Amino acid sequence: MNDAFGRKVDYLRISVTDRCNERCLYCMPEGYKGWERQADHLSAEEIIRVVRVAAGLGFRKFRLTGGEPLVRSDLVEIVRGMKEVSGVETIGLSTNGTRLAAHAKVLRAAGLRTANVSLDALDPEIYRRVTGGNVADVLAGIHAALAAGFERVKLNCVLMRGKNEAEIWPLVLFAAEHGLPLRFIELMPLSRTDVLTAENFLPVGEVMRRLREKDNLIPQPDQRIGHGPAKYYLLERTGALVGFIGALTNLDFCESCNKVRLTADGKIRPCLGNHGEVDMRTLLRAGADDRDLLKLFCEVLANKPEAHVFRENYVPGRPMIAIGG
Ligand code: SAM
């Protein structure tokens, strides 16, 4: 299914909860109280129904996210149900990894194929300052995912000047050592305004310049690892494959956007960097049939914005934790 700008949109990111067991600076405003009521979260059955409708429309790639998806106790049931839906080609997970060690095997067996694990630092103190969590748990989760036979495990690091910039090179070495693609993500204005200052912003271009002081960056223009917007480079000597997500500084960023989001409370959000959302939960709970849901999806796609407006003094509305990353 193409949108009004000719982009093929076949990727649905589904937030299964707005709850998280970490407190990342860039994702959740301090003292955040905007939690949805549990009853307002879509049930496993409702999520699977939306997936069925989306797959009928041509969506093929699905990713479960949050909040932290692994805090949801019926996640395995959701994966199993999605896997049964005709047209679903891949199901991935975005996770902070802290609970992955306990669940990797059963999720893999249920049909989950890939995992993106947030890893903003390897140093335990820095990791704790950025996320509030314990990096040893994340490392155990990464190893468990590899042992469970996930087809791909990718690492994500959100760049924050003065917070985790000292961790850039250690993360590159870790990625090389374990043969895992690593993505550096520019900070997007999706949390507290005091965190999202110009001072904290570290552009991917600057990180690339720093990496070039240590190694050659060989562009991998044909490398598309997963379905995201990263531009990949191979670091010649270290062997690391590193992707850069320049959401703010790459002016072509939205040209190949292929996704739509479903929030935990049942809103379809066609663009992360535009406030617009369309309510699907009301339809779901009012006894709408699949054709009504399909029609709503089509309307959303027809109105998917051409580009994000992060550069236009965007003021965060719902924070990332509530939208789903
Ligand atoms: N808890 C899971 C995790 O840690 O991956 C899933 C949700 S998290 C919101 C998904 C992704 O969004 C993570 O890679 C996270 O680092 C990224 N993210 C969150 N807030 C962000 C921000 N303000 N700017 C850029 N990336 C952000």
Furnish the topology, listing elements before pairings.
Elements: E1 11-15, H1 44-57, E2 61-65, H2 75-83, E3 90-95, H3 100-110, E4 114-118, H4 124-131, H5 135-147, E5 152-158, H6 168-178, E6 182-185, H7 204-212, E7 217-219, E8 231-235, E9 241-245, E10 259-262, E11 267-269, E12 278-279, H8 281-285, H9 290-302, H10 320-323
Parallel strand pairs: 1-2, 1-10, 2-3, 3-4, 4-5, 5-6, 6-9
Antiparallel strand pairs: 7-8, 8-9, 10-11, 11-12
Helix pairs in contact: 1-2, 1-9, 3-5
The structure holds S-adenosylmethionine.
Question: How does this structure look, described?
Answer:
- α6 links the parallel β5 and β6.
- With about 325 residues, this protein is α/β, with parallel strands linked by helices.
- The chain is built from 10 helices and 12 strands.
- α1 packs parallel to α2, α1 crosses α9 and α3 packs parallel to α5.
- It has a 12-stranded mixed sheet with strand order 7-8-9-6-5-4-3-2-1-10-11-12.
- The protein is globular, with a radius of gyration of 19 Å.
- The mean pLDDT is about 95.
- The protein starts with 10 loop residues before the first strand and ends with a helix.
- Helices cover about 30% and strands about 15% of the residues.
- Bound molecules: S-adenosylmethionine.
